[in-house]
Recover the amino acids of this structure.
């Protein structure tokens, strides 16, 4: 067995459990050797649960010479601070989405890593799951012809009804686009390529939100960010996409993502998941046909982007959930509000390569 890359996890909240599980038990090339949290006792508890021998403060983890890759699972407004600290400590970094909450944050991370000859990776890595990889293969193999358009919808009534600490969803840097948009924009870019221009309209429907979940039931939250965003994306390849993300919609019957081509249409599963139903309806068909997944990793495989980064470093190849991709996604997401404020379309200043598809035939735990 090849050498395992040593991982340190910063941020031991709710989302961390699946990362701990997959990076310790599923992927063959990773080993979690340290974990940290702003509350060290929480890190100790999580470490004990998953057999991680060292835990403590963020500073202690950054000083750990054994840690090669820092997995940054902090809240969005802390992403840049932790990522820059990891890079300054000489470590590769893979963060939860988004890359940062401003373009300046994202650029600082990318520039610092380039100067230090280190890698930056970022969630979401759901586009590496079997559902979206199957969609990628269908498009690349010409099942729907040349893609000409896409639609994407993520609409819900907000997170204050169920999340124990939903305040950050309504702060600057939160909202439905920076929270859920990364899944949708990343999926679209992985399927169709980079975006050259966007237009959009945004609004914040309610000036405050009231938490109805425990333990903060009754707390009133000020809303500092748009909660309904409607946009149009012009892809570099000529395709036109429409997207709506909202925390203001009680119910809807719209699809997650559909791709429309010159020879058919593709129904894409929820990009927040790794599996899901993939359906195609070609020009000569009378109904949708479900397609068997061509790739594995259809269960919750969060951390696959970390494993891919580790493999890419070892083999000196590009990694798929890259900083370049995450920076482009951040740029696109922020441009919707820019376009709304300006009342005109905004050209996107960044770009990226479509990440390479995963190979066929991978067994669970393998990356390449």
């Amino acid at each position: 067995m090849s050498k395992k890359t040593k991982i340190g996890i910063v941020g031991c909240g709710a989302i961390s459990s699946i990362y701990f599980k997959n990076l310790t038990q599923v992927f063959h090339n990773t080993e979690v050797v340290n974990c940290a949290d702003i509350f060290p006792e929480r890190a100790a508890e999580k470490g004990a649960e998953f057999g991680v021998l060292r835990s403590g403060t963020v500073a202690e983890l950054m000083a750990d010479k054994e840690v090669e890759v820092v997995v940054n699972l902090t809240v969005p407004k802390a992403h840049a601070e932790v990522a820059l600290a990891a890079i300054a400590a000489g470590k590769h970094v893979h963060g939860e989405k988004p890359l940062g909450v401003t373009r300046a944050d994202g650029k600082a991370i990318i520039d610092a890593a380039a100067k230090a000859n280190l890698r930056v990776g970022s969630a979401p890595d759901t586009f590496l799951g079997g559902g979206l990889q199957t969609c990628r293969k269908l498009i690349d193999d010409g099942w729907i012809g040349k893609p000409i358009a896409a639609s994407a919808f993520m609409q819900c009534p907000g997170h204050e009804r169920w999340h124990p600490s939903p305040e950050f969803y309504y702060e600057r840097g939160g909202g439905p686009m920076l929270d859920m948009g990364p899944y949708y924009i990343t999926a679209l870019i992985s399927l169709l390529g980079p975006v050259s221009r966007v237009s959009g309209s945004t609004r914040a429907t309610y000036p405050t939100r009231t938490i109805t979940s425990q333990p903060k039931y009754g707390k009133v939250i000020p809303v500092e960010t748009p909660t309904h965003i409607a946009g149009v994306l012009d892809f570099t390849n000529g395709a036109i996409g429409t997207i709506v993300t909202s925390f203001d919609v009680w119910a809807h019957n719209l699809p997650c993502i559909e791709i429309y081509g010159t020879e058919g249409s593709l129904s894409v599963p929820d990009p927040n998941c790794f599996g899901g139903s993939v359906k195609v309806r070609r020009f000569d068909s009378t109904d949708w046909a479900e397609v068997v997944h061509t790739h594995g990793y259809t269960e919750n495989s969060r951390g696959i982007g970390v494993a891919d980064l580790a493999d890419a470093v070892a083999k000196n190849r590009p990694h798929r959930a890259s900083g370049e991709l995450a920076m482009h996604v951040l740029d696109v997401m922020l441009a919707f509000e820019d376009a709304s404020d300006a009342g005109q379309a905004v050209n996107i200043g960044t770009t990226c390569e479509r990440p390479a598809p995963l190979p066929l035939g991978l067994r669970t735990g393998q990356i390449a």
Remarks:
- Residues 136 and 191 are 6 Å apart (CA to CA).
- The two ends are 14 Å apart (CA to CA).
- The chain has nine helices and 17 strands.
